[in-house]
Each structure stands twice: as C-alpha cells, then as structure tokens.
Amino acid sequence: MSSVLYSLAISVIATLLSISIGVMIVRRVLVNPHVAKAITRLNISFYYPHFVVALYVYLLFSFIYPYIGDYHKIYGTFEILLTYLLKEIPFVIFYLMVTYRKIERAEVDVVRLSGGGTWRLFTTVEFPKIAPQLAELAVILVSFIWTAYEIPSLVGNSFPAFLGVVFYQGYYATDISVQVTTMFWMLVTSLFFYY
C-alpha cells in the first residue's frame, strides 16, 4: 500500500508541476515572438529516452552526494521528480502550442481593452480553450508516471518502491502465486485507468 501511495503522490506532483511550468512557458513564448524560435530546440528532448535522462540525473547527483553527506530517501524522490520534469515539460509545451496558436487575437484584444490583466486573460480566453487538453495531459502523465519502471528503478529508493518496480519484481518472481497476484493487481490498475 505504501508503494501505491508513494507512486501516486510522485506522479500527481510531477504531473501538476509539468503542466503548470509548461503552460507558463507556452504563455511566455507567445507573448515574446523572439523566444518562439528557441522553443524548437526543445525537439532535442524527444530524441533521448527516459532512462537516458535518468542516467544523466543520476550522474549529476552522484558527484553531489559526497559533498552533501550520506544518501537520504528524499534524494531518490527528488531525482525521479527532476527526471520526469525534464522529460514531460517539453511534451506539455508541444501539446499545448497548437491550441495557443489558434487563439484569436481579437479575443485577447477585447480582454485587454476592457482592462483585463494577465489573470483575467488566462481565465476567460485561454483556460476554456486548453482545459480539455489539460485534462488529457493529466490522465496521460499520471497513468504513465504511476506505473513506470525504468526511471524509479534507476534513480529511485528501494523503500518505498515505486509501483512499476513492485510489479516488475512480482511478475518475474519464481513463486507462481506471487506472479498471479501481481498480474491481478496489474489488471486492477489498468481497469482503474480505463474507467
């Protein structure tokens, strides 16, 4: 049960941070057209798999650990969060960029002329258009991160273990009853995301 809650908490935190930072970057890019060309450089992040980014983060922190003392549980959690943020923020940016480019300039001008600031612009014009995409992103990211294996096994803690790591260990266990139980819980998790 602790691994389920730990995995869910990490996946929700990583999803919320990725979506909020991604929305802020997209809004900043569209306000400043000079930065719009630089956003295409984020395509590079799609060439690196998740485990390669996790190895980069692990190597970065392996040099830091001798200076900050012994390894602590929070470091594995922080490494997992940092890896997912590095991979999912560009995904969020490219997912939202098309919708933000389709927002009519006239709608933005109406809000600006009526005295609305950036918050009013976001709540009345932008958010109604991106809300369905934000919901899709939340479901995609939470379901992917919650059951992922490679990043938590590379940089995560041994206890509480991430749900994907527990599933992997149970699926390849030598005891048949453990394998069947693991397959059952994998099915329950899949049905949870389906409905």
From TrEMBL:
Protein's name according to its UniProt entry: ABC-type transport system permease
GO biological process: transmembrane transport
The keyword Kinase is assigned to this record: no
Transmembrane residue ranges: 6-26, 47-68, 74-98, 130-149, 169-194
Family of this protein: Belongs to the binding-protein-dependent transport system permease family.
Predominant localisation class: membrane
GO cellular component terms attached to this protein's record: plasma membrane
Keyword Transmembrane (UniProt): yes
SUPFAM superfamilies: MetI-like (SSF161098)
